[in-house]
Amino acid sequence: MRVTLKSIAAVSGVSIGTVDRVLHNRSGVSEETKAQVQKAAEELGYKSNIIGKALVAQRNPLKVGVIINAKEFNYFAEEVWRGVEAGSEEIESFGVSVIYYPMDTVDEGAQLLLLDKAKRDGVNGLVIKPVNSPAVQAAIDGLVDNKVSVITCTSDIVNSKRLCFVGHDHRHEGRMLGSLLSKVVPPEARIAVITGSMHVLGHRRKTEGFNSAVTEHRPDVKILGVFETNHNTALAVSIVDALEREGGVDALCVQSMDKKGLESICGHFEKEKKPLVCSFGTGAELSGLVMDGLVDFAIEENPYQQGYRAMKLMFDVLFNGYVPPSPFCEVEAHIVIDESYVHH
User: Fold this and answer.
1) What pTM was estimated for this model as a whole?
2) Per mean pLDDT, which range of 260-269, 286-295, 296-305 is the poorest?
3) DSSP assigned state of 60
4) Which of 102, 224, 232, 321 has its CA 20 to 30 A from that of 253?
5) Beta bridge pairs of residue 59
C-alpha cells in the first residue's frame, strides 16, 4: 500500500501540514513532533522520491529567474544577494539553473524589460523585488497565467497573482518606530520622513505605518512631509538643509539609506543640535551608527534571510509541488538601541 502524508498524519497524530513540513525539512515544528512524525514515516515504510525527482529535473532543468537590486545598489541589496546565492547553491545540485537579472535602478520601464527577458528565457519560477505599478503587476500576472510561479522578495506588489511574499511586515515596522519616537519627542515636535521611493511598496508601507502611529499617539506633532530621495545621498542632505532653514526639525525617520548616507545626513548637524534620528537597516550597518550616537534607535532587518528563504521556498514549490499555507512568509525584524550592541 502506498504511504501518503494522510496515513503518516493519522499514525503520528498530527496534521497533514505538519507532516509535510517535517518531511521537507521546513521550520515551525518542535523537535518532539519532528521525531514523532519521522518515527511514524519509518514504521510505515515511507521513502522520499527526491532522488527520482532530481534525475527528472536534470533531464528537464528547471529555471528560476531572480530580479532584484544589483549587489552594488547598497549594502541591503548586497545582503539580499548573499542570501539568494546561498539558496541557489543548495538547489542547483537538483538540476535547477538560476538566471540573474540585476536591477541598477528602481524603475518601472527597466523592470518591465527584465520581466520580458525572463519570459523569453522560459523561466519556471521567478523571485522578484517588484516596482509597485499596474504595468509590473500586469506583467507578473501574465507570467502566472503562463504557469510561472512568482514569489516577491523584500517588497511586495498589490493585487497581483504572485504566489506569496517573503519579507518583513513593513507597515508594522513603521508603526513600531513611530510609536517609539512618539514617546520621546518634545511637545509640538517637527518630524520629517526621508525615504527612497514610494514606488517601492515596502517603503510606502513603512511610511504609512510610521505616520499613522505618530498621528495616533501624538496629535500635537507636525509631520513636515515625506521626502523621496531615490537613494541619492546629496539630495537627502539638501532636503535636510532646506528643513533646517525653514524652521528646523526635531526628529528624522530615515529609510532606504546606506551607512554613508546616514553619516552624511547626521554629520550635517552640530552635535548638540542633532535631531532624534530613527532608521531601518541591517545589523552590520546600524551597530556603528547607533553606538556612535548618530542613529538613536532603529528597526534591524534581515535581508540575507529574505533572499535565502525566497529561493528555498521557490525550490519547494517547483520541485515538491508545495503550496504555501499563507501568502505572507514573514521574516522577523526588531527594534535596536545602543544597548542592543553591547555584550556584557
Assistant:
1) 0.80
2) 260-269
3) S
4) 102
5) none
